[in-house]
Amino acid sequence: MPFLPPATSPISPEDTALLSLFHPIVQDWWLSSFRSEGSLFTAPQRQGVPLIAQGKNVLISSPTGSGKTLSAFIPIINQLFIMATKGELDNTVYCLYISPLKSLANDIHKNLEQPLRQMQALAEERGLKVQEIRHAIRHGDVSAQEKARMLRRTPHILNTTPESLAILLSSPRFREKLRTVRWVIVDEIHSLAASKRGVHLSLSLERLEELKRELEESDELIGQDEFEQEGARKLQEKNPSSVDPFTGSFVRNGCSATIEPLQEVADFLAGNYRPVQLVDCRFSRRLDLRLLCPVPDLILADQKELSDRLYDLLHRHIQEHRSTLIFANSRNGAERVLQNLKLRFPQFYSTENSACHHGSMGREGRMDTERRLKQGMLKVVCSSTSLELGIDMPYIDLVLQIGSPKSVAALLQRFGRGGHSLNKVVKGRIIVLDREELMECAVMLERAKAGDVDRIHIPQNALDALCQHLLGMTLEREWSVDEVLRVVRRSYCYRNLSQEELMSAVLYLSAANDGMQERRIYPKIRYDAEKKMIGTRGGSSRMIYYTNSGMIPDQFTCDVHTREGRFVGRLDEKYMEKLDKGDIFSIGGGAYSFCYRRGGKIYVDAAAGRPNIPTWSSERLPLSFDLARSILSFKNDILWMMKSQQKDDLVGFDNSDNNECNNNSIAIIRWLQSQYPIDENSARSIFEIFHQQIGFLGEDAVPTNCRIVVQECLDQEAGRRIFYFLSGYGLRFNEGLARMAAYLLARQRVSDICITTADSGFVLALPASCKVNLLAIIGSIREENCEQLLYRALQNTSLLKSVFRINATRSFMILKSYKGRQKSARCQQFDADMLIGFAGRLDEFAVLRESFREIIEDRFEIENIKEVLRGLACGEIEVALKKEATPGPMAFGLATLGAAAGERRERMREMQNKMLGTQ
Questions:
Q1: DSSP label at 92?
Q2: C-alpha span between 618 and 830 (Å, rounded)
Q3: Model confidence band, residue 659 (pLDDT cutoffs 50, 70, 90)
Q4: How far is Cα 851 from Cα 867, in angstroms, rounded to an integer?
Q5: Any idea of the CA torsion for 679, 680, 686, 692, to the nearest 10 degrees?
Q6: Angle between the 463-474 and 846-853 helix axes, to the nearest 10 degrees?
């Protein structure tokens, strides 16, 4: 193929200087690939490539499709190519590429194939003898044969996941291949940094630093006599910090389109005290974003009307575009949307041009969808969240999001799958089916257009991830406690780890606490208290580490196989228990008939009938705290607009005709459409929510950034006093505050307390006879005592037991795999429930300690709770109490939590009619 097309325009001096960094063959490849696009280099490439070429740690933040991953790769490929021309490439790893998703890893692996092959061909065409630059992928889906082949023909670029890297570091044979690593690329770093997988990765990178340092020191000791070697060791023992590789022995590059806060994520990437260069190219791409509401009124519309309008809307948009990607927030939602499109429009959609993609599908099905999507063979694909990150899909020209993705970062990542190139427009539409999400999505779209991304929370001092690495480290050699602390503290996530916290993990892993072995909690490491050394116990420790490592918790699922042996996907155990022989269900858009169950697997046949849609349990996506505050500010703005109108229009309101508005109402609706990318149905619905809330409860009944509204209702039929707390700060905040309030009520001997939580607030239901001052209860929760209150409120809760099970498995207290036997999540939970009482009787038991820390710091984000509590204490935030027999419009969502969609709208309709009758 021709590599050098005719020049279309002269090359700028800046581009010439950048090209001069490359080998001539790499230069020619770059020119042939990008000269016709008008600009040789994108902004992140102009800034990032020279820095990486200089060997600096770099964090690149730029929009999807801006070439940031290539920015990280091309200086590395260039250097490897130079080495290849000199015959210097050994059978070892030089570059690690780490991604959070297998689908992203697969995509990058394919994207590397073409440039490496083309450069090789161009070199041969020029008569240049060049070694092959090998690259391979290694994660849980890779076969044992392929992994063994990597020892014989080691890839120079290894594409892997955090979990696989941790195992490789303790593999006696492969860890030698990692001593030559010069570069590490962490893609979609925001996704990893915000989870324990990122914490786990940060420790792996520090272990890699230590591995390289040890091997380099051993090379230096070769040739020294015994006296010189002993002197070097004593110098190291006397001043261990003098040999700390704070400058780093390999280059770290991170990439993401949605990073905030930028400096903190940079610190996470580089590790404690290491310098890192920021490439901040968070410019806005051309965006065509809009909020659509299928019906004029989401409460008055019945289920059939809403479904008909929804699928007509989807079908029209799909047919107007070449290839459409639909996100549905859940796996069963993705399956349901695809099935309904096929049923309603059979002449347009079939298995040939439509597909599903989510995490409960088998690898074969997911990769087939990805392949056909990349080749432009699919008209529509329905996904949950599995296609959110990084995958290059050049034919997608429209992304539809059904419901709120709950954060600006998720929205930008999903919409960024369309128009995956800088010269293309990102076209995305949010379709709202729930009135509660109208304001949320309007604000989200406006923030997305401004590039205003939510901050992430990076977990600190996670003891379960530390336990995994302590076991892995002891498989390498013996360590002193001081050595371990030195290495671990180089990670940003453990920079403040105390020796006492480290020792709680060491004592747990060595089963030093009385009663552990009687409960079959056996030591995983050996600890010498006199010498303060840790080491391996041998035996099955290595296999336990290999088969039980990783931070992704097991789910309550069963594998689904065809009777021919092909893996189809996974079903939740609760759904599977309802299946009878011959029942037909859908996975990945295909229909399967249930045959029988054997152990933890069920076997199926392909079927032709109309399938049921399985349900998969998953946690609700929580609204980000930053977005929640923006929504509260939005409510404040709308309230000001409505106050500025003639107050007469807000008295004696009549909602009998949604198609007629007075002039002031029209002005506000037009203002909404001019300021936010929303359609008329959405603007009218938002206006009506405020119109009704103010008319029913007054102007001070709207929650804002300076007001929390509490509405008290008496349910005489149920004999309950119900309090609707309209805080608006998101699910994490509301769950934490609700649990503290319920705990304080229980201390006052109030019984039969029920709480339910959502992003908009929480519901507290008490016996009607209960006479308590709830505002005083809330007022007693302060910044100084909230952590202790949460600690006490979590005792003996199902949430604590669930998190304890996950952390006990991560910490090897409960083994999910041992000697070829797998323990299901249900059996793990049973064991955890038996052990949590024992753990509670021990002082600072590491696994239980971590469970409390994870819930309070990571799940509830205690620092955000403290921020609001400070506002309440100083009077910046007021609490307004309202009493009415019927919940106000802004509490409708809270009052119908847990109801199915159709039932929920029916109950909202009843409350609205009752409210209008009250007026």
A1: S
A2: 20
A3: very low
A4: 23
A5: -170
A6: 140
Give CA–CA dist 539/549, Å, rounded.
17
- Dihedral sign, CA of 214, 220, 225, 231? negative
- Tokens representing 358 are 């989510």
Contact partners, residue 445, CB within 8 Å, separation at least 6: 289, 290, 291, 411, 430, 676, 677, 678
Are the beta carbons of 505 and 850 closer than 8 angstroms? no
State whether residue 313 is helix, strand or coil: helix
330 and 582 in contact (C-beta within 8 Å)? no
Is the peptide bond prior to 261 cis by the omega test (within 30 degrees of 0)?
yes
300 φ/ψ angles, rounded to the nearest 5 degrees:
-75, -25
In degrees and rounded to multiples of 5, residue 404 shows phi and psi of -85, 135
For the stretch 604-636, pLDDT in tens is: 888 877 787 787 766 568 999 999 999 999 999
Residue 236 has pLDDT above 80, yes or no: no
Using the predicted structure, report yes or no on whether residue 240 has a pLDDT greater than 60: no
Tokens of 540: 């099955």
Q: How many residues does the chain have?
A: 919
Closest Cα to residue 192, out of 105, 73, 280? 105
CA distances, 519 to each of 527, 804, 833, 837, 845 (Å): 20, 16, 13, 12, 15
What is the distance in angstroms between the CA of the first residue and the CA of the last residue of the chain? 77
CA dist., res. 98 & res. 189, Å (int): 9
Q: Which residues, other chains included, contact 290 with Cβ-Cβ below 8 Å and sequence gap of 6+?
A: 428, 429, 430, 445, 677, 678, 679
599 near 416, Cβ under 8 Å?
A: no
Name the burial class of residue 573, with classes exposed (0-12), middle (13-18) and buried (19+) by CB atoms within 10 angstroms of its CB. Answer: middle
Residue type, 262: L
Residue 424 neighbours by CB distance under 10 Å: 15
Structure tokens at 349: 């959609």
State how far the alpha carbon of 96 is from the alpha carbons of 327, 479, 659, 885, in Å. Answer: 31, 26, 60, 62
Residues with Cβ within 8 Å of 369's Cβ and at least 6 positions away in sequence, in order, are: 355, 356, 357, 361, 378, 381, 588
Q: Kindly tell me if the per-residue pLDDT of 243 is higher than 90.
A: no
One-letter identity of residue 308: D
Q: What angle do CA 698, 703, 704 make, to 5 degrees?
A: 120
DSSP single-letter state for residue 436: G
Beta strands 183-187 and 251-256 are parallel
Residue 703 in tokens: 């929650």
| pLDDT at residue 589, as a whole number | 79
| Predicted local confidence at residue 195, as pLDDT | 95
Residue 490 near residue 469, CB atoms below 8 Å: no
**Backbone dihedral region for residue 42 (phi beyond 0: left; psi -120 to 50: alpha; all else: beta):** beta
CA distances from 310 to 293, 297, 303, 380, 401 (A): 9, 13, 10, 16, 12
Which residue in 427, 385, 428, 391 sits closest to 410, CA to CA? 385
| Whole-angstrom distance, CA of residue 739 vs CA of residue 755 | 8
- Asked whether the predicted pLDDT for residue 432 surpasses 90, the reply is yes
pLDDT digits (tens, 9 = 90+) for 785-825: 999 999 999 999 989 999 999 999 999 999 998 888 888 88
Pairing of strands 287-292, 251-256: unpaired
Side-chain-side CA neighbours of 162 within 13 Å: the count stands at 29
What distance in Å separates the CA atoms of residue 237 and residue 765, rounded to the nearest whole number? 62
Token representation of residue 129: 């003898």
Q: How far, CA to CA in Å, does 217 sit from each of 211, 233, 247, 326, 719?
A: 10, 10, 16, 54, 75
Structure tokens at 322: 């070449």
Residue 641 and residue 668 in contact, taking contact as beta carbons nearer than 8 Å: yes
